[in-house]
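Our consortium's second objective concerns turning raw sequence data into structural hypotheses that experimental partners can test. To show how far this objective has progressed, the report includes one record in full. It was chosen at random from the queue rather than selected for favorable results. The single chain below, 172 residues long, was entered without modification.
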Amino acid sequence: MVKGKNLWPPGLFFTGLIFTCAGLAVVYYLGKDINFSCSRAADRCLIQKTNVFGDIEAFEEIELRKLAGAEVIETRDSDGDYIYKVVLITNRGRVPLSNMSSSECRSYRKTADKINNYVASDEERLDIEHSGSFMKIIGFVFAGLGGLMLLGSFAGLFKPGLLLFAMPAGKK
């Protein structure tokens, strides 16, 4: 490689590839929309998870009479920080409302309170939606930055007079 010339930058290419893949993985795995709905007339509750394409990935049905309520479970991650998750309390045990955990406790407590209030009341319907929009935005930003890095690494290949494999100075 000729010193001082920036030939095809593999570092930029691989960094862009990592950013793109990581961003798309965040969108796909963490950008799910979760809809929890209950109906007294149907005597059932449904947990439906849809991916970024709108396809239903997971669907779980719970009989309403077997739903005792919800609670927020508090655990610690590997760094010792608290993370929270909403779980439904049923006669079959605890059913997680989502596979994701977060350090944001307040919104999870509100969700659990809505479910508990519904179970204790005579309301006909309950609909709770959790949007994965924030994670989708983060993922697409990372993927976009990675895509720009990939384009930047390829743009260097097409400059006039730039050789992918340069000969040492003095040899032709």
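The partners drew two points from this record. Residues 9-31+133-156 form one domain. Confidence is low (pLDDT under 50) at residues 161-167. Both points have been shared with the crystallography group to help prioritize constructs.
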